Amino acid sequence: MVATEQQNVDDTSGYQNHLTYSIALCHYQMRNFPQALSMISEIIDRAVKDHPELGIGMAAEEANGGAQLRSVGNTFQLNESAVIEACNLKFAIEYQMKNVDAAAEALLDMPARAEEELDPVTLHNQALIGVETNLADSFSKLQYLLGHNPFPPETFANLLLLYCKYEYYDLAADVLAENAHLTYKMLSQYQFDYLDALITLQSSESDAYTKFDSLSNSKLVELRKRHQHLQEIRENDGGITTKTNIDVRSLQQAIDSVEQTMEEFLPSLLSQAKLLWDKSQWSLIEKLFRRSAEFCSGNDIWKLNLAHVLFMQEKFKEASDCYAPLVRANFDKMLEVSAIVLANLCVCYIMTNSNEEAEEIMKRVEREENVNTDKKSFHLSIIIIIGTLYCAKSNYEFGISRIVRALEPCERKLGVDTWFYSKRCLTSMMENIAKCVIVIRDDVLIECLQFLEACEAHGHEIPTEANLFAVRPGEIVRMVSHEARLLRALLLQLMDY
Question: Is-contact 427 464, C-beta < 8 A?
């Protein structure tokens, strides 16, 4: 309907950027994101064509090391193009869809402006996207907005939630006290109750737990009602051959209400679980999660946290059943999966004698790390830890091979920690060889010799102790090259060289 109306306006008065943006905003409010993104792209494409002087998209080149751009200012052409509004709306959509990289790119598509020329919405969005890289700057931007009206209504809640996320509860309490008039205007009842429970953590964990419990129980009841309503709509639709726009819209509204309630339920549940996690009360946490399994079993966040709890209880088979779907969903982009998730899943597979699955994951991680050599990640640690686990189970040949390959090339991956775990496995293997407990193939031993030789060559400036302050005065700091040479000599003796 809105598309037809836009076509009628286009026929009579020509294309209007702000009208197109308004229609895109309507689609956004109805959560019709694909249609909204399509109209946003249309606005940006027209602005690029009609106003090349704005340099739309050039900021991305500057971020990648290009020449610094001059500010275009808040000109009449910029205002008429509606490109700032379109980019901010695109940011909001991508951010809600958890596409953080695409959201950041949406902000970079904007014409270059000085920070003092930025509108409040852009400044707010920059604060959100910069949290992971520059938390202090994000806080300062949100604080600035809060003191300069008008500002986006979300600013107040986002600042409070960020303070609580990083455990600055005092600052959150101060902001609430200083802006009491905004509490009723810009916070929902759920947001206020949740923030109140978080701030209560400072004074009384038991009171905070009670508040989280009450909040999660009420949201669970609401979630059950939403699911029942959704089920009723689906059952009614089952007998209808021709669906009207009203039927489709009511179904979508029911789905959206379930998702929104889920987004409110999970934070209170996880905050409640964290209090128990800090006390290592794994069984109680599992009971908390199990009571909402009927509605949350398909939610990745819920499933991931349940997997962690099961893993801590050494219920490896059940934990692997929760971890595995999350990993399979990103099997072609393994480095995008959290390192701890991959490590835990590999441990689960090994402890349940599913070694082939663990080996497949480790090999894929190795391949992706070899391709993405410039990308810093902690996935290397997975292979070393898993290799250590194999060695602990006396499967030295596979475990040592995993560790050696994970540390190739030595000049880039050898460090204090990686050497510490590597030498433990090597010394354990050599001890068992000396005791005639195990027999290792010659090709594996030769691989170990080559590895130790590489460590000796590249470990001249790498200490064997992470805490150099623990070294006594006059004591010589031992380097990796020294220990590698000693281990190589010992291994050669065991091989009767």
Answer: no
> Which two three-digit tokens encode residue 105?
């790119």
**Which H or E run includes 227?**
helix 205-238
Contact 452, 493 (CB under 8 A): no
Q: What is the end-to-end Cα distance of the chain in Å, rounded? A: 85
Alpha-carbon distance 218 to 212, whole Å?
10
> Does the pLDDT at position 297 exceed 90?
no
Cα–Cα–Cα angle for 232, 233, 238, rounded to 5 degrees: 100
Q: Which two tokens stand for residue 304?
A: 């991931």
Compute and round to an integer the Cα radius of gyration of the chain: 29
Amino acid identity of residue 245, one-letter, is N
Burial of 116 per CB tally in 10 Å (0-12, 13-18, 19+): exposed
Q: How many helices (H) and strands (E) does the chain have?
A: 27, 0
Tens of pLDDT, residues 194-222: 999 999 988 899 999 999 999 999 999 99
Runs of H (alpha helix) within 329-441 = 339-351, 355-371, 379-392, 396-406, 410-413, 416-434
Burial environment of residue 443 by CB neighbours within 10 A (0 to 12, 13 to 18, 19 or more): exposed
Q: Is the pTM of this model over 0.90?
A: no
Q: What is the DSSP letter of 471?
A: S
What whole-number distance in Å separates Cα of residue 256 and Cα of residue 236?
18
Q: What is the dihedral of CA 369, 371, 373, 374, to 10 degrees?
A: -120
- Exposure on the CB side of residue 206, measured as CA atoms within 13 A: 0
Considering only CA atoms, which of 444, 453, 368 is closest in space to residue 406?
368
Q: State the CB neighbour count (10 A cutoff) for residue 280.
A: 10
Cα–Cα dist 363/150, whole Å: 54
Q: Which among 186, 203, 150, 129 is positioned nearest to 176, based on CA atoms? A: 186
Residue 455 near residue 480 (C-beta atoms within 8 A): yes
Question: If residue 295 lies in a helix (H) or strand (E), which one and from where to where?
Answer: helix 293-296
Return d(Cα 283, Cα 314) in angstroms, integer: 11
Q: Please say whether the beta carbons of 213 and 238 come within 8 A.
A: no
The tens digit of pLDDT for each residue in 433-459 reads 999 899 999 999 999 999 999 999 988
What are 285's two structure tokens?
A: 């946490």
Upper half-sphere CA count for residue 334 (Cβ side, 13 Å): 22
pLDDT of 143 higher than 60: yes
Alpha-carbon distance of 395 to 100, in angstroms, equals 41
The three-point CA angle 371-390-379 to 5° equals 30
SS3 state at 424: helix
Distance, in Å, from the CA atom of 87 to the CA atom of 447, rounded to the nearest integer, reads 54
- What are the percentages of helix, strand and coil residues in the chain, rounded to 5? 75, 0, 25
Half-sphere exposure of 114 (CA within 13 A, CB side): 6
